[in-house]
Structure formats: structure tokens, C-alpha cells
Amino acid sequence: MLSLYRHAPRRLALRSMRATHSLPPTLNSVTEHDLAHFAKILPPSSIISTFPPSSVSSEELEQYNNDWMGKYRGTSTTVLKPKTTEQVSEIVKWCNERRIGIVPQGGNTGLVGGSVPLRDELILSLSNMSKVRSFDPVSGILVADAGCILQSLTDYVAPYNHIMPIDLGAKGSCQIGGNVATNAGGLRLLRYGSLHGTVLGLEVVLPDGTILDQLTTLRKDNTGYDLKQLFIGAEGTLGVITGVSILTPPAPQASNNVILALPSFKNVLPLYEIVKRQLSEILSAFEFIDRTSYDLAVKHGQGRALSDEDVQGAECFVLVETSGGRREHDEEKLADLLEFLLEAEEPLINTGVLSQSPAQFSSLWALREGVTEAVAKEGKPYKYDISVPLSSFQDVVDGTREHLRSKGLLGDHAVKYVVGYGHVGDGNLHLNVVANSYTPEIQNALEPYIYEVVASHRGSVSAEHGIGAMKTHALHYSKSDVSIAWMKKIKEIFDPRGIMNPGKVLE
Amino acid sequence: MRPSPARLLNILVPVKRLLTVNRAVDYAVKIRVNPQQTGIDLNVKHSMNPFDEIAVEEAVRLRERLKDGVKSIKAVTIGPPKSIETLRTALAMGADASIHVETPESAPAPEPLAVAKTLREIIKRQDGGVDLVILGKQAIDDDLGMTGQMLAGLLGWGQATFASKVEIDTVKKEAVVTREIDGGGEEIRCKLPLIITTDLRLNEPRYASLPNIMKAKKKPVEKFTPEDLGVDLTPQLETLKVAEPPARVGGGKVANVDELVEKLKAAGITAA
């Protein structure tokens, strides 16, 4: 009770921030009676609940109820951690009959509040489903439980000279099921494409408890509607993904990276064209970091900084990575490119640094990947993950900063930094607003402003983070009324009682 | 009385080309023993030994501090033709010139004593003499950690090993070096010429910037063969077998304290 009281003022503020969220009034809370039933399905070690027999304190549920940014807080009483698909099926079936809302949860590393309950829904953690089911080193097809951590899958396929087609900052905690449910993008998308292409099959427990087994390992299968695509990016609103079949590419034999310092953002696009043309098939990442993001990453110890001389006069930075099959070939290509860039009549770059060792390779990547963490250490981040035309990246960042300034919200009292970084190759900008605290004033200044800017560019309000609880009200900026109406019809067909991840994606 | 002019230092930095596992697979991937059990799996990338990188960085920082007090920084390596890449990295970081003692592609890696003898011959041949040799304290592939000490012995020079801080007085021809020792640091004063071996905390090596990488391509590389120097690099040691540590055997769960005590006793562990 005490802890509830302690958080009350903050929760009130948050509630006003997302006043549009509502759960179907027909959903029931978990009761002692339900726990007795779950105890028949699961061993005691798989049940964490404030109800007997486990009777834990609500603090022990905090890591499940709260997202990692501390922005979204649920009040669930019960977490279930099944080990098998059959157990998931039994649980879901019971919840459907009892009309209990379910929040499927993976690594809980999401950025839009999609993996935590809005109220007191049951949390279904997939963490205990962490076995690799099969791997074929010839085809590279991996079949794994949904709860496998991305990093451990990367480690699993590494001895067979394969890599996961997806890589992101949260790889040490995020789970493959969650990656698929949110259609996570990340750092390798430029090279290997989205999960809509690399996922070959899924096993899903539907909201009535039926197990939909589409866990095929076929690369080609044109036999009717491709149902699995519906669950990729549905954020757990249509069913619980319990197994994933995914195509892993062969591991590159050689990788290099370089950070280039640019005098002006205007040079990013011409640079991208040249890099794409000259590096061709070995280009595996082209990432953009603006100066403020870079300074924050360095300030918070994410990777070793470049020398003062190298960063002087740089307005932004670009990280280029190559991956290929033969080191000498790749290095020659890269060296030619760098020489071309430096010796051009009107150079697009000031200077740059080329990693000379595996340690430096990691350190350069840390400067880019560490921005997320640095921003979270600096203050309370409002994170917008948008797709807009490349040419408008900087305008969107600068425009947002000016907008906040005009509202008197820029400064140490409210918003400290507005930063932009992201995947240039994918047209995906991460716009982060770092504030002292989450307040309704800042929230109202940012939204719908940013969404309107995105809509004016015909962009996406969520390029890779998803809709979750954060952006349900903004869905219409990127999707037409017709699209949303059909999404609702699909939801109604799969989940007529509205128990699956209620309040997420669709209002 | 006018102070005597500062002596111009000549610094030699031996660097080793190393086999490390390619980060493309995974930076933290386990090094595997090859099936013949004669060494590690060669599916690897070549880069400079990290302690040698620290040595190059320290030489460059000494120049930044002492300005014209440092006359030359020369990097030297022993190895097959491709080892020149390692010299280019040292040159891109700020060395002025380099020496490559070239060995055939198939030649085994030279042992510390042979490396030290080779370095002695190179030092003899430097016109302006050598005042300071900065080496990595060990290579991370074979972990031998002896070359610096052997070289000091062969030359009859002083040595400051495991350095975490280096200060040079060019007028007094002295160095004050802080060494990493068990339980803290040891500060020693040494006369030049001197051998210094670097420890991890000495500095953090810089990135090679693109303009410097371009400049490095034009810097001189002097070539020798072991025969030119009159040294024999044939190994004196024979590797019998390289094996991985035994795989960890999974533990078991005990139901209560009594069972635990019983198992500990059975394993021969008793209270002291």
C-alpha cells in the first residue's frame, strides 16, 4: 500500500498524459480463484503473484510492471512464466473464458509501453521459453522458442559461421519473440531487410488458446494467405508468439568501420550516394549521429572519443560499416573510397577515423549504439522514432528545437537537449527530446506537433519502435481511416473479447 | 650559466602483428584450439598487439609533451610481408619511420630471445643511436612477456617494466616511471638509454585519423632479412600440444543444508 501511495502523484501525471487510453470495461482482474487454476498448469516456480501461495510483495513485480525508462507503470498482481507452448495455450484459454487481459512480455526493452500492463492485466512472461529447437547449418534456418535472448541466439549460431539477421542495442536483454512481435528494425536492416522477410514461420497461441502452428522452414511457400505476417509487428494484440523460425545469413568474414566527421548535415545525402556506389555489396551500415548526440555519448562514456582536432567544426557524424567475404578486397575498396573523399575538390567530410583493431571497431560502434543509453542518463527522454525523407532529417530536429524554444520550454528548467540520430540507410530518424522530467507541458508541446510534421512529409510516426501504449492516438497520422477500420476488423476476428494486450496499437 | 641544450631523443617501438578473432563473427567469441592441437584456429584477423598499441601511443604522447625533444620515433616489426600493415598503423598513429624484418610467410613466429637479439642488431645499426625502447609488456596471443627484459639484459640497459606512467627529463637524461606492482604502484628513476614495457593503464591509444592514414602510406619502411642482421629466428622450443581447458561439468541441487555438508565432506572439504 505504501509503495502505491509513493508513486501516486507521478501516476496521476502520466495518466493525464495518456488520457486517451482505455481498457474494455468488460475485462476482469485476476483473483485467488484464477491462481488456483494456474497452479494446476504451472509449477510454483513459474508463478509470481501477490496472491497466495506465492504472496510476494508488489515490489517484486516492479520489473514486470514498469518499463525500463520508468515511463509506463502497471499494477498487475500476477506474472506467469510458462515453459511450454501447451502451458501458454492453457493459460490463454482460461483467461479468454474468464475475460482476463493478458500482456505478453519478452525482455521488456520496448520504448512505447507495449510490454507493460496499463492496469492490472496478467503478465505472461516468455522468459522461461528459452530453448533453441533446431538449427540447420546448411540452410541457416534457426527455429527457437520465443523467449530466447537475441544475444544468446547470436552466440548459438556463431560457431556455425552464421549471424542473426537482426542486431540492436538491447540485444543482451531483448527476446526474439518480442523482436518479431514488434517487427524490430535495428542496425542490420540495411543489409538483411526486415523481419517480414527473414521470419519464415511462427508458432502462435491465439486468444482462444488454439495453437496456430506455422513453424515452417520453407523459403518459398505461396499457398494462400500468409497469416504469420499479421503477427509480425502486431505487438501481441492478436496472439502470443511462442516459437520463431528465422533465416540467418552467413557471417561476414571481415568487418571494418569508420566514423566520418561532416561540416554540414547537407553533405550526408551526397555522401550516402557516393558510399553506396563505391562500397556496393559490402556496405552494411550507414548511421547518422548529430553533434549533440555525439557529445552526449562521449560525456556518458559510450566509446572512446575522437581527438579534439578530428571533431572540430563537425556538425554531424556518419558511421559506415562494411562486411564482406574477403578482407583484402574490402579494405582496398574502403581505402579507395576514403582517399576519394579526402582528395575531392570540395570534400564532403572534414576528416574521420578508421578502426585499426577489434577493440576500436567496438569503440566506434559504441559511440553510435550508446546514444540511447547516454540520453537516458542525461535526463528523461521523450523518444520519437520516425520515418521521414532523408532530406528533412535536420529540418525536423531543428524545427522541433525551435518549436520548444518558442513555447519557452528550452533550457535547464525543462528541455535540455533535442538530438537526432538514426539509420540514414533506412530513412529512419530517432528524434530524442531530453527533459528534466516528464511533464504535461512538454508532452503537449511535442504532440501532436511532431506527428503533424511527420504527416506533412507522409512519413511514419513509428518507424521501428511500434505503437504500444504511447502512440495509439497518433496512429491516424500515418494510417488512413480505411486502414485503421480494417485493422480493427482483424483484431475483432482474432480476439473478440479483447483480452490480448489491451489498449495497445488500437484505441 | 646557460642550460645545456636538450638532447634529442630517438625512440624505438617494436610492434607485433597479432592473430585475434575477427569481430565480424563476434568480438567476444571464444578462441578455439585447432584440430591438430598445435595452435589456435586461424580463422582470424590480424591487428597490432594491444600493449604495443599502447607503446606507440606513449611514444607519440612523449613527442606531444617534449616537442622537439623527441627527434625520431621508429616502429619495427618482424614477420611475413603482410606485417607491413601493422607498421602502417603505427605510422598512422604518429611514428616517423619504420623497419620491417621480413620473414617468409610460412615461418613460425619468432621466440622472445630471437626477437630481442634482432632488436639489438637493429639498435646497433641506428646512426643517431637509440635512447628509449618502448615495448608492450606481453603479446596477448602467446602471453610470453619476456622480450623487453631479455633486450635489457642483452644491451646492459636499465629496464622499467609494466609502466603505468612515464616522465622523461631530456636534460638530465632520466626517466621517472611508475610501475604496476601487486598492491599498488612503484615509482622508479632510471637513466637513459632505457627499456620500458607498457601496462594497460599507461594510456588509451588514439584512433588513426584518415589524413594520417594517407600520410602513413608515404612514410619510409626500411627492410631487412634476418640474414642481413645475422640473426637466427629458428625456434628453440617445440610446441607439443595446445589444449582447451576441460569443459565445465554442470552442478547439482541439494535439498537442504545437511545434504550440502555431506557432499562437501565427501568431496574432502572440511572446516579449517
TrEMBL record, chain A:
InterPro entries reported for this sequence: FAD-bd_oxidored_4_C, FAD-bd_PCMH, FAD-bd_PCMH-like_sf, FAD-bd_PCMH_sub1, FAD-bd_PCMH_sub2, FAD-linked_Oxase-like_C, FAD-oxidored/transferase_4, Oxid_FAD_bind_N
Tree of life domain: Eukaryota
Catalysed reaction equations from the record: (R)-lactate + 2 Fe(III)-[cytochrome c] = 2 Fe(II)-[cytochrome c] + pyruvate + 2 H(+)
Listed Gene3D superfamilies: 3.30.465.10, 3.30.70.2190, 3.30.70.2740, Uridine Diphospho-n-acetylenolpyruvylglucosamine Reductase, domain 2 (3.30.43.10), Vanillyl-alcohol Oxidase, Chain A, domain 4 (1.10.45.10)
Residue ranges of domain FAD-binding PCMH-type in the record: 72-251
Keyword Kinase found: no
Keywords assigned: FAD, Flavoprotein, Oxidoreductase
Gene Ontology CC entries for this record: mitochondrion
Pfam families reported for this sequence: FAD-oxidase_C, FAD_binding_4
Cofactor: FAD
Sequence similarity: Belongs to the FAD-binding oxidoreductase/transferase type 4 family.
Protein's name in the database: FAD-binding PCMH-type domain-containing protein
Organism the protein comes from: Sphagnurus paluster
Taxonomic lineage from the root: Eukaryota, Fungi, Dikarya, Basidiomycota, Agaricomycotina
TrEMBL record, chain B:
Cofactors (names): FAD; AMP
Pfam family, one: ETF
Details of cofactor binding: Binds 1 FAD per dimer. Binds 1 AMP per subunit.
GO MF annotation terms: electron transfer activity
Keyword RNA-binding: no
GO terms for biological process, alphabetical: amino acid catabolic process; fatty acid beta-oxidation using acyl-CoA dehydrogenase
Location within or outside the cell: Mitochondrion matrix
Keyword hit for Transport: yes
SMART domains, alphabetized: ETF (SM00893)
GO annotations of cellular component type: mitochondrial matrix
Keywords attached to this entry: Electron transport, Mitochondrion, Transport
Domain of life: Eukaryota
Protein name: Probable electron transfer flavoprotein subunit beta
Known role: The electron transfer flavoprotein serves as a specific electron acceptor for several dehydrogenases, including five acyl-CoA dehydrogenases, glutaryl-CoA and sarcosine dehydrogenase. It transfers the electrons to the main mitochondrial respiratory chain via ETF-ubiquinone oxidoreductase (ETF dehydrogenase).
Residues of the Electron transfer flavoprotein alpha/beta-subunit N-terminal domain: 37-233
InterPro entries xrefs: ET-Flavoprotein_bsu_CS (IPR000049), ETF_a/b_N (IPR014730), ETF_b (IPR012255), ETF_beta_N (IPR033948), Rossmann-like_a/b/a_fold (IPR014729)
Family as reported in the entry's similarity comment: Belongs to the ETF beta-subunit/FixA family.
Subunit structure: Heterodimer of an alpha and a beta subunit.
